[in-house]
Design brief:
Mean pLDDT: 90
Structural class: mainly beta
Distance between the termini: 10 Å
Largest sheet: 4 strands, antiparallel
Shape: globular
Order of helices and strands: EEEEEEE
Number of strands: 7
């Protein structure tokens, strides 16, 4: 396993979409998890710790470009390495 002290710190805001300015590819070499309001979520597309929100897909609905529609949920956000 990797040493937790050698892992890079998680940023305040992170997105899995490579088109986003908040995407950091180096962090996704490690398994990143999100705990939202005390429950672990696997469907998070983007998060912001300081503002306290996550973006998740709204079901199977897609926009006209084929991208999933996102909804913003507010609460306590805790990112971590698995």
């Amino acid at each position: 396993m990797t040493d937790p002290n050698s892992l890079p710190p998680l940023p305040d805001r992170l997105s899995i979409d490579p088109r986003s300015p908040h995407h950091v590819a180096a962090l996704f070499e490690h398994d990143v998890g999100i705990r939202f309001n005390g429950q672990e979520r696997a469907d998070v597309e983007e998060y912001c710790i300081s503002e306290g929100w996550i973006r998740v897909p709204a079901g199977k609905t897609v926009d006209r470009k084929g991208q999933p529609l996102m909804i913003k949920l507010k609460g306590k956000v805790e990112p971590f390495y698995r």
